[in-house]
Design goal:
This protein has three helices and 29 strands. By secondary structure, it is mainly beta. Strands 4, 5, 6, 7, 8, 9, 11, 12, 13, 16, 20 and 21 form a twelve-stranded mixed β-sheet that branches. A hairpin with a 5-residue loop joins β25 and β26.
């Protein structure tokens, strides 16, 4: 079969032999991931990723009455919706603490109840520094993490709810309230995820402002009135990230594909996948011995591992210089159910793993890996697996994974399945910030 590797893979293969890296081609079927994103709206704030000025990170407020109308997207939020934010503070000139404030406004003539169903927020310093971890380590109590994205998604997966967040905020008519007002130290970053619900439309803004005061008098967090003034008078925080490639130019020779970073309201907080042989069936037949089946996770435009399935969340509204779709699906809950069935006629050993193959778009019957994997981390987060073991005892296990590009990954689950055996395995994780798609969920029958 003719296939073409991406330039990134070819470049890796051209590295000097002194690196002692062995490139591996794994022959196995690649199938699109069943299911789709749900319709839950997500206030999705990740651009600019690196913040060096005060300003507006994301505002869904109307532009009317604002000094910089282009900084406001005029998108009300109502019912169930989520809030995701991931930003880093870095500036050579400013060594003051930057505060991040989430402001919500009630435009109605009656009070609005905002319920905070779940909320977790962590900063690199002091909550979640980046540390070196093995490629896979069991994480039963949630104490294994590296960086704020890893820690936040780990705790959201475990239904943690930080007590610092109120459970409910009543917002009077035509008034605003702060959901949080949290510091980010210089050189640090902060990740926040919240599940929210309102009984009437509201507008939200994610804002950045330096601590007020001076070293003699002391510094303090901004007050509600100061946040409201920034919302009215402020411009978008800088520096802006790279503008995404015009879709009409995608595929033109020499045109670099820039995805951009997300700032807007995306559609989809969960991807539920019941993985079976065919739609409507109740089983997934395990592969023949020595074979595997892989299901891509978090595919993006032109990087679908040959499936032509793009999983990126569509955007309801966005700023023109930010990502056209929610590429990366940061914070999206992937929930996959695999009703395994051994129809081979013999006992088989079956493994379930998450892998990070090299990106490519042309082969649906093979994946490309390297041993040992080196370079940038492409996935850093916790995965939960639920299943019945070989003694038919229920198991729920958590693993923290650190995978680099081209890493095959270790099995999350290994099952010894007698002939005609059936076993259901469930895999859950929230796609962590700072990860780079795609990954694959692989079912393999050992030889």
């Amino acid at each position: 079969m003719w296939f073409l590797l991406t330039n990134a893979v070819l470049a890796q293969m051209a590295q000097p032999a002194a690196l002692e890296r062995r490139f591996v081609t794994q022959i196995q079927e690649i199938r699109p991931l069943p299911g789709e994103l749900d319709r839950v709206l997500v206030f999705n704030s990740n651009s600019p990723e690196v913040v060096q000025t005060e300003g507006i990170l994301l505002s869904t407020f109307p532009a009317l009455g604002k000094q910089v109308p282009a900084a406001h997207l005029n998108q009300p939020l109502v019912g169930r919706f989520d809030f995701f934010s991931h930003h880093i503070v870095r500036s050579a000139r400013q060594q003051r603490t930057l505060y991040q404030g989430a402001l919500v406004y009630n435009p109605n003539n009656e009070p609005v109840n905002l319920e905070i169903l779940q909320a977790v927020s962590h900063a690199t310093n002091p909550d979640a520094p980046f540390v070196q971890l093995p490629s896979m380590v069991e994480n039963p109590d949630g104490r294994v993490y590296s960086g704020p994205g890893s820690r936040v998604m780990n705790e959201i997966l475990r239904n943690v709810r930080q007590p610092e967040f109120p459970t409910k905020i009543e917002i009077p008519p035509q008034q605003s309230r702060m959901i949080f007002n949290l510091p980010i130290l210089p050189g640090s970053g902060r990740t926040t995820y919240m599940r929210l619900q309102t009984n009437a439309p509201v507008y939200m803004a994610n804002l950045a402002m330096y601590a007020l005061g001076n070293s003699r008098e002391g510094v303090r967090a901004p007050l509600l009135e100061e946040w409201q003034n920034l919302l009215v008078t402020g411009r978008l925080a800088e520096p802006r990230d790279r503008t995404p490639t015009d879709p009409s130019k995608v595929g033109i020779e020499g045109e670099e594909k820039i995805f951009g970073r997300v700032a807007g309201v995306s559609i989809g907080a969960e991807w539920y996948a019941r993985i079976t042989d065919r739609p409507g069936e109740d089983k997934l037949s395990i592969p023949q011995p020595g074979r595997g089946i892989s299901y891509p996770i978090n595919t993006v435009t032109r990087i679908t591992l040959g499936t032509n399935q793009v999983q990126s969340a569509p955007m309801v509204v966005r700023y023109p210089d930010t990502a056209i779709n929610g590429h990366g699906n940061y914070g999206v809950h992937y929930r996959a159910i695999l009703p395994l069935a051994n129809n081979t006629g013999n006992p088989q050993t079956v493994t379930i793993s998450i892998q990070t193959p090299f990106k490519q778009e042309y082969a649906r019957d093979r994946l490309f890996f390297v041993e040992p994997p080196q370079g940038q981390v492409f996935f850093r987060g916790t995965v939960r697996v639920s299943y019945r073991d070989d003694n038919r005892q229920p198991q729920v296990r958590y693993f923290h994974l650190v995978q680099r590009q081209g890493e095959q990954g270790q099995p999350l689950v290994t099952l010894r399945m007698p002939a005609s055996d059936r076993r259901v395995v469930t895999v859950n994780f929230f796609y962590p910030p700072d990860a780079t798609p795609p990954q694959v969920l692989t079912v393999r029958t050992l030889e």
